[in-house]
Structures are given as structure tokens and as C-alpha cells.
Amino acid sequence: MSSTLDAPLATPAPETGPGALAVTQERVPTRRRYLMCEPRFFTVEYVINPWMRPDQPVSTERAVEQWTELKRTYERLGHQVETIEPQPGLPDMVFAANSGTVIDGRVLGARFRAEQRSAEAEHYRRWFLEHGYRSVVMPEKINEAEGDFAWTGGLLLAGTGFRTDPGAHAEAQEVLGVPVVSLRLVDPRYYHLDVALFVLDDQSERPLVAYYPEAFSAGSQRVLRRLFPDAVIANDADAECLGLNGVSDGRNVVLPKEATHLAERIAERGFEPVLVDISELRKSGGGPKCCTMELRG
């Protein structure tokens, strides 16, 4: 990846005056590189999570409009967006985050638990090889990639409980060469780590995350409190609109527009919330992060 993608972006002057929120520090955005897939064939025709209702109407056209605006939002913020060609018969291929984890140019692919999504993994594997990636490993264990893996800059937080096998955590550590911390999810609504937690700052010595405690087991909550004592804590309303399915560049934080409480909390920490409408794709249990795989290195 070009070094310019790691360079800080221009930061607007902080808001001042009596109405300004108190902030703890200046936040510096960095350029990112993302992989996305247009929801050209998006629909809800099966049920693999509690959000999916095949009996409810779905507009593919509206999903494409929302996805396009999300892509433009990243580009307006100065990020580079790559795309993969969607495939007929794979309505959830839009959720690119589930098909690969990329750290320092190494790629660990995906192996889906649901048969309906299994073919997606091969299309993404081919994309990586066609775009110059040479270290591409397909997992032996069930592994839904960035759906259950969150990179803090020093640790890979790894979710399990509904989709990704616990054994995939050790596999990720071996393939990617980074330390892994396992976290257990206990609420089926928050079936992936990326709908219960996301990383706000992965560039500092003390990374910062936001998370919804009730999505995690008691032991995992203790781990999170120990690792991230300054974390932003989401409430029920944040979680229920998939507000934790956010994407941060270190300053600008893209969130579903309904996550107003979470937006206020992160603004107090010096971040700039960027609210987007992702309501049509949420009918399949997805949000901004689900649509976005980060290509690191």
C-alpha cells in the first residue's frame, strides 16, 4: 500500500464556544484503503441472523443508493475505495468485511458457517490474487473475517459464540503473526464482534474502542475493562440500530444515522461523527462496517 494512505489527513479546527463539546485530545485521521462490493443482487431470501425477515419488503435499488453514498462518504474523507464485482445468487456479498482480514499485506480469507454464503470466500480470494497479494491463506476453521476480528493496532480482538470457531483465533495468530485476544458473544442479535464493538483509534499507544457490554460474556467484559478502561460504552439504543457497526479513521467515525447517543459520546472524545443512512442493508443485519473491509499494508 502506498505510504500516502498512512499519512494524516488535514484536520479541521476544533469547534469553540459555549456550545462546543469538551474533548480530551486532538484526533488525527489517517488515510485508509477499503474494499467494497455493490449490493446489485441484494435481497433477504433466507434467515441466518435475527435481523433477517424474508417476509418483509426489500428494495435493492435503495440498498444500492445507500451503499453508493457510503462509498462516496469514504472518498470525501480522503480514503481509497477498491471494489469487487458482485455475483448473482450471493445477496450478502455486499458485506465485504466478512470475507478477509488483511494486516501488513497478509491475508487470511474466510470460511463461512452458513452454506448460503460459502461461495463468497472464493470470489474474494481471487480478487486478492488478481490485485497482487501473494500471502493469501484460506482458513481451515470457520472464520468470518472482520465480522469477528477487530485490529487495534497491536492486538487482534477475536469474537466467537455464534459464527467464528474459537480454533480460528489461534489460526489467525499463526497466519497473521499478531497477538489475539478471544472474546465471547452471548446475545444472538449481536452475532458478530463487529456489531458489538469497533475500534475508534488504532494509531495511538493506548487504542480506544467503543462497545456494548451486554453483548459479551461476564469474563469477556472483564477483559475489555482491563484492556480498555477508557472505552466508549454504548447503550441499548446504540446497539439495537447496529450503531457499533462503525468505521473510524482516527477522527472521522462513520455511523448509522440512528446512533445519536453513541455519536454524542464519541464527539465528547474529540471524534467527528459522520452519520449515514444504511437502513435497507440493516434488514440483513449489516451496517457501515459490514460493507467495508480494510486493506492494511
Q: Your description of this structure?
A:
This protein is α/β, with parallel strands linked by helices and 297 residues long. It has a single domain, classed as 5-stranded Propeller (L-arginine/glycine Amidinotransferase, Chain A). Helices cover 22% and strands 19% of the residues. The chain contains seven helices and 15 strands. The strands form five sheets. Strands 2-1-15 form a three-stranded mixed β-sheet, sandwiched between helices. A three-stranded mixed β-sheet has the order 3-4-5, sandwiched between helices. Strands 6-7-8 form a three-stranded mixed β-sheet. The chain is globular. The N and C termini lie close together (5 Å). This is N-Dimethylarginine dimethylaminohydrolase. Residues 1-20 are annotated as: Disordered.
Structure characteristics:
297 residues, alpha/beta, 3-stranded mixed sheet, globular, disordered N terminus
